[in-house]
Amino acid sequence: MRNLSLHQLKFGHVECTQIYLPHPPPNDFVMGNFHTLTKAVNLRLSEEVCKRIPNTNKLHLIYDDELEGYDDCLLDHLHNLGSLRKLQSLKLVVSTFPNRSSCNADRLKCAFPISLKKLSLENCSLDWNDLTIIGSLPQLEVLKLVDSVKGRNWRPVNGEFRRLTFLSIVGCVLRCWDGESSHFPVLKKLMLKRLKQLEEIPLDIGEIPTLEIISMVGCTESAEISAIKIKEEQESLGNEGLLVQMSSWKDIFTWD
Do the beta carbons of residue 139 and residue 164 sit within 8 Å? Predict the structure, then answer.
């Protein structure tokens, strides 16, 4: 949907294949009752635009340097996400050529409002240390990282991810994950896909009392073995409820 009139945006939700919004918005363009905007392409998220969508709680942004309206400065405006105080669900997809532009960690710092409950990042070029910013979000329950984190070593910090129940990591080059159960105290579902260098899942992850499932697709044999060890250890302690799934083909990741 390329040519959606601004005057048509009078309902609370807009879901479309693609939507392009002009900048600056017209003076009468205020969507106080607007709650959902999905697949907005190359949106210049300026302070002025954020003022016009103050009550948005679900947002899906796509930045693609092969589509209409792209320029490198668009990504610099992402820090304004922090002003959307009612935003609960954010999906950010960046499709850019590495030698031309990228969504780097500096541009994402302090970008997220504390109201966020769901966050999905695709191709965002973070470092594992940058997850401290995300982990400090007090309401965050769902985190999905798709080809978004560089670096081979991850050591989470105690006191973060206090409410995280769902963690999905897809396609990163993570090799050494030095984690403990205290890093994700209420995690229920751990989903790993295309982690072709991961040596193992930290055994202490099995000590998370709320953990229900570990699902793996296309990961290393050593990582799969560690998942089996976690299950066996939990069974020896009387915990029969942990489910471990492994597959080389089935796509188990969804976003709603």
Answer: no
Name beta bridge partners: 244.
214
When mean pLDDT is compared across 10-19, 49-58, 156-165, the lowest value belongs to: 10-19
Number of folded domains in the chain?
2
Residue that terminates a domain, selected from 116, 144, 179: 116
Residue 152: which residues within 8 A CB-CB, separation 6 or more? 173, 174, 175, 176, 197
Q: Do residues 36 and 95 both lie within one domain?
A: yes
Q: Are residues 84 and 124 in the same domain?
A: no
Quickly tell me which residue has 């083909």 as its tokens.
249
Predicted TM-score of the model (pTM): 0.85
The residue to which tokens 């990163």 are assigned: 172
Domain end call among 95, 116, 137: 116
User: Are 80 and 112 within 8 A, CB to CB?
Assistant: no
Let me know how long the chain is: 256
- Residue 251: which pLDDT band, with cuts at 50, 70 and 90? very low
Does one domain contain both 140 and 101?
Answer: no
SS3 169: strand
C-beta atoms surrounding 124 within 10 Å: 25
CATH number at residue 223: 3.80.10
